[in-house]
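Progress report, Aim 2. The chain analyzed during this reporting quarter is listed below.
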Amino acid sequence: MLESLNRVRQPDGLLGHGVVGRAAGGVSSYCMVTEGPAEVLHGRRGEREALDRLLEAVRGGQSRVLVMCGEPGVGKTALLESAIESASGFRIMRAVGVESEMELAYAALQQLCAPVLDRLDHLPAPQQDALGVAFGLRAGDVPDRFLVGLAVLSLLAEVAQEQPLVCVVDDAQWLDLASAQALVFVARRLLAESVALVLATRDPSGELEGVAEAGG
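Predicted structure tokens for the chain:
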């Protein structure tokens, strides 16, 4: 659906990749959308409206992924809070990247998934084991990262069967590498699970940039 990604600077300080092309009409100043169209946004009103459209799509049984980027203080966290306040009827899962935890594998992912780990036994055994070891719940060898990503995808889909789900990650520039890779894996595979994954970062580089390029 996404034809190209062009780097743009927004007048309010948000810097990112805007999605342009035949399918213009969807979400965010920097975004990768798993299904449906996308657009370049200008101004806070447009961004809030895009978040509303994202939530509406997820209410309708689709999944969406959105990445907002900009320098500190331009309002990324406020936009995340606005999305949460607008998410009536949604379950909210949250994580915040912590610079001092960047060397701790799966630290951010554990923070995101902690509220729903009671569903772990609903997953296939290999996925249970991989995520359990990754989060220090079980002893074992270093888990296969494919299985960890698959386990998180399955876990989110399991939760979203009961009600639409919004996963919010702030300060994503400080995600540990293992968590970032797992979230990229999930973002690339969300289809119709009623899950929104919304991240805010200072710079869409590394793993997050790879997601955008894959979306194009």
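Residues 133 and 142 are 7 Å apart (CA to CA). The mean pLDDT is 76. These observations will guide the mutagenesis work planned for the next reporting period.
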